[in-house]
Specification:
The chain has about 280 residues and is of the alpha/beta class. It is about 40% helix and about 15% strand.
Length: about 280
């Protein structure tokens, strides 16, 4: 089966050159990275808080990296390793009235960067508050914010894809159904993550089939004992996922991701690549 495969840089946190070196060594030819990369010492809440401060303090220049400043700079760095950028991942609270203007400005800055780098997709993760309790008004704010981002991305020439994620407002199957009912598919596509779906007790293959007309991007990883693991080392029925992709005629990016590892990041990437090729019949 032919798919466009990439690998996410999250395992290396903010050490992008090390990530690109290992991703290329593992046999991948494309990568996804962050507009605001997590640091090794970040907790999830700490990352979200640091991101919120960056949005408020410097929304026009929040692309935080020591390794590149321009789209050409990123392309030059990636080219050293024979890699291309599949997309950039942007997070936000999306429902805090004090932040939404800053978030919108910053995310559209990232969108223009991504388009100038030759990509066509912007991945959006988030929609949360500190309490983890959401009213109908919060969902309205989320939809309004994502529609605003989607309109901006459409003008720039990008496809904005929302990424359902643990700990956000769009986590469970019911929340995903509500999200799809209330958002405009011409503005916001879906970028599911099969492991986050399983963590929320949703069936990933069935989800891909149900929302085939919305899925334009995919994160692929495995999970065991509620921890993310290398492909093939968890409980997800990955052959069923690949079969669902085949059945719906999916031709977009599939991004292998592993948040943390007890091995080296390179060893983990190689394990996942071998699973793709040897067990799933997907050529990298």
């Amino acid at each position: 089966m032919s798919l466009s495969l990439a690998y996410q840089t999250i395992t290396w946190r903010d050490d992008l050159p090390a990530a690109l070196l290992d991703i290329a060594a593992a046999g991948f030819r494309a990568f996804e990275t962050f507009s605001f990369p997590p640091r090794a010492a970040d907790t999830w809440q700490g990352y979200v808080d640091r991101l919120a401060r960056a949005y408020a303090e410097r929304p026009e220049t929040y692309l935080e990296t020591a390794w590149y400043r321009t789209p050409d700079g990123l392309a030059t760095l990636a080219g050293r390793y024979g890699l291309v950028l599949s997309s950039m991942y942007c997070s936000g609270r999306f429902i805090d009235p004090a932040l939404v203007d800053h978030e919108l400005a910053a995310i559209l800055t990232a969108a223009r960067f991504v388009r100038a780098a030759g990509c066509r997709y912007l991945i959006l993760g988030g929609g949360m508050n500190e309490r983890g309790v959401y009213a109908d008004s919060d969902y309205r704010r989320l939809v309004e914010m994502l529609h605003a981002i989607g309109r901006g991305c459409r003008e720039i020439g990008l496809i904005a894809c929302y990424h359902p994620h643990s700990g956000t407002m769009v986590e469970t199957a019911a929340q995903l159904a509500r999200f799809c009912d209330e958002t405009d598919p011409s503005l916001i596509a879906l970028a599911p993550d099969v492991a986050h779906l399983v963590r929320a007790r949703a069936d990933p293959a069935a989800t891909l089939r149900r929302y085939a007309d919305r899925v334009r991007y995919l994160h692929l990883k495995d999970i065991r004992d509620n921890e993310f693991v290398e492909l093939g080392e968890g409980l997800i029925d990955l052959p069923a996922v690949v079969a669902a992709l085949r059945d719906i005629g999916y031709t977009g990016w599939v991004v292998v991701e592993l948040d943390d590892t007890t091995r080296t990041p390179l060893e983990s990437a190689i394990i996942s690549r071998r699973c793709l090729e040897e067990r799933l019949g997907v050529n990298v």
